[in-house]
Amino acid sequence: MSNKLLELKNLKTSFQIGDEYYAAVDDVTLTVNKNEVLGIVGESGSGKSALAFSVMGLHTRAKIEGNILFNGKDIANITPQELNRLRGDELAMIFQDPLTALNPLMEIGDQIAETLILHNQNMSQKARKERVIELLNMVGIPRPEYVYEQFPHELSGGMRQRVVIAIAIANQPELLIADEPTTALDVTIQAQILDLIRKLKNDMHSGVILITHDLGVVAEMADRIAVMYAGQIVEVADVHTLFENPKHPYTRSLLNSVPADGQDKLHVIQGIVPALQNLPREGCRFSERIPWIDATHHEVNPVLHEVTPGHFVRCTCHKHFYFPDKTKEAELHGNSRS
Amino acid sequence: MAILEVEDLKVYFPIKAGIFNRTVDHIKAVDSVSFSIEEGKTYGLVGESGSGKTTTGRGIIGLENITAGKILFDGVDITDKKSKTKDIRRDMQMIFQDPYSSLNPRKRVFDIIAEPLRNYESLSKLEEKKQVQELLQLVGLSPESILKYPHEFSGGQRQRIGIARAIALKPKLIIADEPVSALDVSVQAQVLNFMQDIQKELGLTYLFISHDLGIVKHMCDDIAIMYKGRYVEQGTKHDIFNNPQHIYTKRLVSAIPDINPRNREKQFRFRRDVQKEYDESYDDYFDDKGLAYGLQPISDTHLVALPERG
Amino acid sequence: ACSGGDEEADGNESEEPDTTEEEGNEEEPAEEEEPAEEEAADDGLVSIDDFGVDKTNAGEAIDGGTLNFGLVTDTVFEGILNWTFYEGAPDAEILQFFDESLLAIDNNFNFTQDGAATWEMVENEDGSVTFEITIRDNVNWHDGEPVKAEDLEFSYLVIGDPAYEGMRRYALDGVVGAEEYMAGEADSISGIEIVSDKQINITYAEPNPSLLASGIWAYPLAKHIFGDIPVAEMVESDEVRVNPIGFGPFKVESIVPGESVSYTANEDYWQGAPKLDGVTLKVVAPTTVVQALETGEVDVVDTFPTDQYVDTVDQLNNVEFLGQTDLAYTYIGFKLGTFDKEAGENITDPDAKMADVNLRRAMWHAVDNDSVGQQFYDGLRWAGTTLIVPSFPDYHDPSVEAPSYDPEMAKKILDEAGYVDVNGDGIRENPEGEELVMNFASMSGGDTAEPLAQYYIQAWEQVGLKVQLLDGRLHEMNSFYDLVENDDPSVDIYQGAWGTGSDVDQRGLYGRTAAYNYSRYTSEENDRLLTEGASAASMDVEYRKDIYKEWQELMVQDIPVFPTLYRSVLVPVNERVTDYSIQWSWDDLHEVGVTSEEAIVAE
Amino acid sequence: MEANNVNIVEQTQDPSKSPSGLRILWRELVRDKLALFSLILLTLIVVFVYGVSIILDQDEIVTVDLFAIHEAPSEDFILGTDYGGRDVFGQLIIGTRNSLTIGIAVTLISGIIGIAFGLVAGYFGGHTDNTMMRVLDFFQILPFTMLVIVFVSIVPDYTILAFSLIMAVFSWMGIARLIRSKALQEKELDYVQASKTLGTSNTKIIFREVMPNISSLIIVTMTLNLAANIGIESGLSFLGFGFPESTPSLGTLLSYATNPQTLEFRWWIWVPAAVLILVLMLAVRNVGEALRRATDSRQRRG
Amino acid sequence: MWKFIVRRLLITFPQIILLSVLIFLMAQAMPGDALTGVIDPNVSLEEKEELRERLGLNAPWHEKYADWVGGIVQGDFGQSFRFKMPVTELLEQRLMNSFWLSLMTLLFTYLMAIPLGIISGRYNDTLLDSSITGYTYLGFATPLFIFALVMLWVFGYQLGWFPTSGSVTPGLEPGSMEYVISKFNHLLLPALSMALIQTVSTVQYLRSEIVDTKQKEFVITARAKGASESRVYNKHIFRNSLLPIAAFFGYEISFLISGTIFVEKIFGYPGMGLLFLESILLRDYSVVNAVVLIFGVAAILGALLSDIILSIVDPRIRIK
Ligand SMILES: Nc1ncnc2c1ncn2[C@@H]1O[C@H](COP(=O)(O)OP(=O)(O)OP(=O)(O)O)[C@@H](O)[C@H]1O
Ligand SMILES: Nc1ncnc2c1ncn2[C@@H]1O[C@H](COP(=O)(O)OP(=O)(O)OP(=O)(O)O)[C@@H](O)[C@H]1O
Ligand SMILES: [Mg+2]
Ligand SMILES: [Mg+2]
């Protein structure tokens, strides 16, 4: 049996804006292996969540093309019943905002138990409760019996996020998608949550997709990293390669803009991620933000190239990439899109 | 010379309950905080969510009622709301966290930046326009943008508009409450760079509030760590990062994810050790209510919250 | 009784029928004249002459059956079910089924000997008169107790009690010893004497023609029931509200407050057991009365809204309409003075804006009331002439020449009286050449109130008189009476209506001391005639007729007010009902029957 | 949720808040065919009614004509006459104008009260808010219809303006509540805080900063309120507390239907008024709903 | 919980007092009094004046108010001038009638509103939704009184399915089965007429709540758990959407009160609304005051009730 847990082939997720469809996830091909953390990083709006939702089949009004193979089975076009059997059981997701991800009117225990009920009707009520307590314990919630009967609003953000995680891992999923699980949390709590996810992966040998825009987090967590920009994967590599030998100008810019010791000036990526409707659909999508790289250096319809084994980069412009010098940058500031 | 001196600042919020909605208790959002900021320096205020950073900033500038304490600005007592005369006020400005909500979406950039000018200076229309355009240029935006609306700008640009507004009156002190935490890393850099530039140019003093130790380290000269409304440690950048004394500070520092994947294991180990130490020596650092003790100097610049010995 | 749906009349008339609701004189209603009606026939209009007062029987009555009686009102009934206490007209309708007066009357509203009691008038030497009333032996209360003389006395004692808050105090007017009793100086009324269980003598200080015209209070109050209840609490008691008692042809079985009453036959009724098993009375809104009749939900209603008649008469082919002239008239009054409350006297102001009788006469000439009656009421109302309505055939004088619609005449009168348009704006100024604007107050409510008022204003404008609606709108009943009763100086002209009651005595409405003499008209001649009309001499009907004829002429001369419309009452009766009548004198409810179990439904 | 996913730049373009928001509202409105149709219809009616009623002689119309009572529609009287022989068509035009005027006046007056009240309560919050909300609660529990009836009986000078005022006094609470909750949210936003630190006065902040930002909410609510207020006097007319007949209104015409014969046989008196009320209310409401959809990005139709 | 209720009650107290003063002053301001309408030559002006004096109609308002409040505190609303009976007794009959009418209306309102709102919200922007929305628009634009009149005309008279006036068939034994059925029968048409119009606001409200809740993140969480659509709706969306309806309940009472005035008048149903209308015309102030006060208190209690319901069902504001 192959090690591939999830395979995305030419996945394209489009939203209707006005009368047209625009792809927020555009031709993404990606693999997640068992017992592996795949980090996906990218700026806000690059399509990370859209990708995760597509895998989970949670988009209500999107057009999804391409294949999503889960354990070799295409789950992009299965019936809702089949999908429901998978979701929460073998496929699970942790959401970004712990404040709103829980039903405000339901007791914490019931919300966790619901996942159990949905996938195992035979479980006795007692067993279920025990399992919920166990889960609460696992995610490090003190006094689980007490918390069982509490309501979401009575818990702090960190606690709630743990409950959300408990829901996700209740049925020991094979694939866990964590969409920015710590963005809303303090660093100390973030460290704990990440610790938890890491432990889960190790215990259950699940595959994990960790979506974040915090490079520090992926540096600590991921085995492999995919960098997303404007709906596309621009670079995929294992974590060491990516941090030590980034190729794509976008990846390099990202890494460079993180404050680090001894740095006087931080690197600035010009411009912004364009809105969905304004995405350049041809050519290197990042080219607009590195105007000092000659247009001829960009590929016309760039595809992911494998530069070294397991290291994929889109667009060959990385070969010509350099950071502009300070003075030039200042000049560019003045004329920046405004 | 210290431009801002805060002594024993307390900001309490009432908790109301009971039949007559009487105040039964207080949230001590800021509980006896003292510090001073030297002119031209950047003073960082760090802490977890809810530790009282924002409240401290808002208390100083007068957006929050002060329960007790004393605030001296440029040697003048401005504790009382009434004593915050217009003149004092113009010397102290604020930059807000959210570049989207801090600019009135219904106003043109011109009106936004001109707002403080109109409140404090009676300029002719022409002068006003000139000044606004100068300010825009200063923050690196084209002077033609004055007729645009905020939504036509990116997050970083908006934050710069906010800064332009804050410096319009040439203030001495700027309180920046998490000025970049709503921004993507890439944009963050832009704003941080710019804040440093402008500081040099105008000789500004910053009270820089953040929960991101990485950024604070990058920006600040002096740093204070806050926990549950109190200071746990205060010192120079070097003191805090290289010689953290308080267990809470240590834990905070250890929790910062390391950008270098090679350090993973080391980082985990470090974190585990700190956590162990934290659990073991919690009682040495916090009183029975889980609050920090008063600050004790351990060097000229370095203060740590430790129980009074003796 | 007056029609519920009718406009202005509501307020004042509703209090009236207490003396009226029984019967009155009625040969053929309104046999007098009305040129309107002759024309009307051609126009397809309706005339009151076309209606009968007795139901024509259409078949044999079956044994028993229940009559469904509709009480047309858009409010509920109060449910004060006792003659001594009731106030609203709807309650009177309910009362008549189970309780009645001891004395019957004829169609002239004069007492007869056909009632539950007989009477005799004895003139005493001291000038006073005694009525000797003898109750028939078989007259018993519904609980089997005989109706006794003391019951009638008790009624007087209650009405005269200081704790009594009702409106029947007038029953004691003129009774010897009543004043002393009311003042608390006596325990009983010396003029009332119980001769035996069944005989009672009531003495009045002065003979008065009104006494014979149903002027004697003849409603006994069951002493064996009310005797123990303090007077102040009687009106609230269950004996009045829940299980009321009487000696009429039907007994109250149950009451749904405000909505309906069910009666069963009183087998022990003194005129004999009723044919019907019972009666069900329920409130019907004026807006739905047609449907209720059409579907046979009700057999009879107390009064039918006349304005709906023409539209629905074809539709209602299952009923027979009975009709007669109503005891009421609408009028327009002119404010001529004020009422002095201290002195209790009307003071006529010779300088009042409306003081010139020529102006008033011209205004009468200017309005076309016959057309109003025809157009608004399909001929069921018609122009009034005198202040005594044709329902009093003895007294109404059709020969009085009242000003009729004649705008040219109106203009002529005005011209001669000096009301001419001096500034050329088409509006006449007063003889002094000052602007003349008159304020007209009229009451709201009812369908035609507003256009009617507008019509009058327009009509006056046609002859060059400027009249405007006071405050630009109709006044709600309470405000209206506030204005008119208190002689608000802003009112110059007003439109009102009176229910006439069963007595022609006019002192209450037009006397010098009458607060209700809203026009505040007084004159020596008026005083004389009204006093004379109520004097002992007037016990002679012929004499009295002459007096009131003179008075009617005086009123047409002086025109403090002028009658605008006389009215009619219509009562639809389902075809299955037999022996029903609306004659004032009719009291044979017990003979009413039905020809089928179910009412006949319209096709 | 989805809002979270939306690219930040996109997110800030909440159409209800950006300055060109009004233009966007307009664009959305015009896109919505039903709403556009309603708007055009409405404009036509308004222009027609106000235009024609200038030409019409109101006194003439309310003149009683004894010899033209209850005439069916004919050439002389397009919509026949009522029981006073008055031209129904003329009354309909003037009535519509009056009813519209009342609707607009009530909406405006109650809107102004409600907005000011809501803004002040929401902006200051705390004790001020608490006290003001108690006042509002109090108004809200008042038995509206009854008090209006009582008031209407009291006022001596019963004009359209007086009526509108009375109505407004009892109907500003809904909008006040809405505006307050919005203002409570709004004042927490940094731009308000910013204005405070910049030394701008409270009054200025409330009316120059906060209010423009909730203007689309105000517009939407006012439009929907207007829809509700057009028929507002008809109920009172029915109960007999409406305007004198010399001031025709749709409610007066409509209340003639309480006469069963009018209801059944003389449709021309009340049916046109009923239809007009229905059409006006629906049209205004359609516009209002379209505006609401336009301000709510989640509900926007494309 | 109890503390909360007590506190809410304490807040309502000044409201009620204020309400009573307001009502009283307004009654005073109205032209005329109970005796204005008594126009009867048999009753002289002096007698009327005397009666006024005796009934205390001439006293200064604050004295009257004190008297009135003093009475109310002892459960005595004074005497109805028109009905010659204590207002308290008079109201007893009417109050029950209005109570049943309101209850029935509420029942119908929610019976219709909840399914319609749910369908319309769940399948929003479908044909079904459009037709329900269409109905709500129409209902919104149709004046209640015209609708009720037409209902009466069609179902009462043309079809004869329902009784057309009153609250019960005459002559039935109170308490008997027939009596109860007849009462119910008389309620149906007025309650239905009112409910059909009244329900539209609730339907709309519910619909928009559901459309709103549908977008909430916890719904996505539920889907991610593998819950089927119907479970997502039944367990997660409906409960959360119905909650605000409970808050709405308080206002529903106020709507009801206005509604009963119309409906009672049209259906000749002897309840409080009808009583109010009659009493105000006849200046039977003690009744007017009592009715308005009771309606006001009912509205206050309605608001209180919805607060309590809300505080019970909504854990976020639940008081432990
Ligand atoms: N339901 C939707 N309808 C239309 N556009 C959408 C929808 N959801 C997302 N988008 C668009 O798709 C693009 C990608 O969005 P996505 O939420 O996946 O970004 P992200 O990388 O997760 O950003 P963030 O870091 O802010 O969560 C954005 O431009 C967004 O505007
Ligand atoms: N207006 C207020 N009323 C009551 N409590 C308040 C108020 N503002 C802040 N608090 C409380 O005061 C404490 C400190 O809040 P503050 O916003 O200053 O924290 P912070 O350090 O800025 O947190 P964050 O990183 O989340 O911004 C918190 O517990 C908060 O709940
Ligand atoms: Mg995302
Ligand atoms: Mg903060």
Question: How would you sum up this structure, described in words?
Answer:
Chain E: Its main location: membrane. Chain E: It is found in: Cell membrane. Chain E: It is a multi-pass membrane protein. Chain E: Pfam families: BPD_transp_1, BPD_transp_1_N. Chain E: Belongs to the binding-protein-dependent transport system permease family. With 338 residues, chain A is α/β, with parallel strands linked by helices. Chain A is built from eleven helices and twelve strands. Mean pLDDT of chain A is 85; it is low at 330-338. Chain B folds into two domains: 39-64 and 81-228, P-loop containing nucleotide triphosphate hydrolases (Rossmann fold, 3-Layer(aba) Sandwich); 230-310, no CATH class. Helices cover 37% and strands 26% of the residues of chain B. Chain B is built from ten helices and twelve strands. Chain B has helices at 53-61, 86-90, 109-120, 125-138, 155-167, 185-202, 213-219, 237-242, 247-255, 264-285; strands spanning 2-17, 22-38, 42-47, 68-73, 76-77, 92-95, 173-177, 205-210, 222-227, 230-236, 295-297, 303-305. Chain B has an eight-stranded mixed β-sheet with strand order 6-7-8-3-9-10-12-11, sandwiched between helices. Chain B has a four-stranded antiparallel β-sheet with strand order 2-1-4-5. In chain B, a hairpin with a 4-residue loop joins strand 1 (2-17) and strand 2. Chain B is globular and about 65 Å long. Chain C is an alpha+beta fold. Helix content of chain C is 25%, strand content 19%. In chain C, the strands form five sheets. Chain C has a six-stranded mixed β-sheet with strand order 13-17-10-16-14-15. Chain C has a five-stranded mixed β-sheet with strand order 6-7-8-1-9. In chain C, helix 12 packs antiparallel against helix 14 (407-417) and helix 18 runs antiparallel to helix 19 (541-558). By secondary structure, chain E is mainly α. Chain E has a domain at 92-283: MetI-like (MetI-like fold, Orthogonal Bundle). Helices cover 76% and strands 1% of the residues of chain E. In chain E, helix 5 (127-141) crosses helix 7 and helix 9 (229-266) runs antiparallel to helix 11. The termini of chain E are close together. The interface between A and D is medium-sized, with 15 and 9 residues. One adenosine-5'-triphosphate (ATP) is lined by residues 13, 27, 29, 47, 49-55, 211 of chain B.
Order of helices and strands of chain E: HHHEEHHHHHHHH
What would you say the CATH architecture of the domain at 92-283 in chain E is? Orthogonal Bundle
Distance between the termini of chain E: 6 Å
The averaged pLDDT of chain A comes out at 85
Tell me the β content of chain A. 15-25%
CATH overall fold name of the largest domain in chain A: Rossmann fold
Proportion in helices of chain A: 25-40%
Total beta-strand segments of chain A: 12
User: Strand pairing plus helix content of chain E: what structural class?
Assistant: mainly alpha
CATH class of the domain at 92-283 in chain E: Mainly Alpha
CATH architecture assignment of the largest domain in chain A: 3-Layer(aba) Sandwich
